[in-house]
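Hi R.,

Here's the chain you asked about this morning:
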Amino acid sequence: MDMLIASEIAAGISAAGLSYLGLQSYGYGAKYWQIKDPELRRTHRDAARVRRTWMRLARYLRLSLRDDIPTMRDAMFTDRSRAQQPKIRVPRIRKIDNDAFGVTIDFASIPGVGLEEFVKACDHLANHWRMTRVSAHQPEPGVIRVRAVRRDPLTIPLAVGTPRNPRRLDYFPAGLDEYGEIVTIRLKNSSGVGVYGLPGYGKTSFILGLISYFALSPAVQFVVADGKVETGLEGDYQDVADRCAVVIGDDIATFNALLKQLRDLRRLRSSTIRQTLGTPNVWDVGPSEDWPLIIVVIDECHTYFQQVKDGGNPELKKRNAMAAENVLLVEDLGKKGRSVGIIPMPATQKSTGEAIPTQIRDVMTTAISFAVRTEEAAVAALGADIKNWPDAHPLTFLSEEYIGVASMVAAGRPGFTRFRSPHCRSAVAAAISEQAAHLVKPETLPGITIGQSHRAIAPGTAAALLPHIDKITD
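And the predicted structure, written out as tokens:
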């Protein structure tokens, strides 16, 4: 009788174990019930589905190897027919991680099944796994990394949170790409960052986000020229004026004078960098409070470069000559400011040659394009190769859900990368700028005197200075 009870208990335990294993294979193991986020729970089940169906799916998609080469063990069989039976091998799953957007799977490559084969199968993998998109790349030899996202990160709004003092200044985390991974923009040894796109689609918010991100670092100083407004303080940059060493408006003569001072500062840095830092390149040691990185924002830069028909008018001729000189001076900053820590950031609605001269546009290390309306503008911003990447083409960003989405060439990634830039609310930008206003130190920018009148008043009240802002006139 006891034996019968014991066997029934054993059978019950065995059935319970099998039931648990069955539930676990569908993602309902003990870990699942510890997850509170519903999106993480769903991607946890997605990861279980990938693992459960992989062996069969790999054979369907021909991501497998028919191994009919006899091994030493096969040679020991006396039954030769058994020894000749081929084996089917599939790439082994090394690791699966899941997050709120989807899953990341590392596969071990096998002969004949590598990155190229996985890339070809991405659409089928997305269909079978019920994902929005799937991509594959090779992070190291012998490993194929597949990223599958169920929710489209490009359509999920992001917002700039409360910034902290950044630990590194050699890159800027610009946003999330279409697979939910962080996209960074390299600042180390950068000759400049060009920001292009239609008004209202994210250019200025991107720049304000960058200023807010670096605002708490004493090793960064900002120079802002806003070509949209008269003084530079009544527009988009009023909220960050407290954290900027220089703020000017659309006056071309003021901009010209500022550029000459920046050129002289660049020359001073070039002539003293070895004695001061012990190296010809500031990035060998990194920017510091005494030798800060200078980010020169030139919003609506076409304002300062535009040539107009002079009709023989001597004043207009003088203006055009000044605009031509501005082009040369910004080009000088881009080509020669890299090693001494000066980075120009021109921004304009249209990146064609009449808006931003090609000698400036083509020297920028990074080009970012938000939505545009013409093929010409997209090609001017990102190059002719963008025509071969229709999914990343800025013409596709015109719908409202893609406000804040841009395309760029990202280091270490093939082709073009789409990413969503977090929206920077004016309240956040203003709060962080006022908090960090004490980090503006004009003495670290010797010779720069233009555009500093707003520093004469208390932080948070820059708007009161509007009637008295610097403006150079003849």
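Residues 461-474 have pLDDT under 50 and may be disordered.

Let me know if you need anything else.
M.
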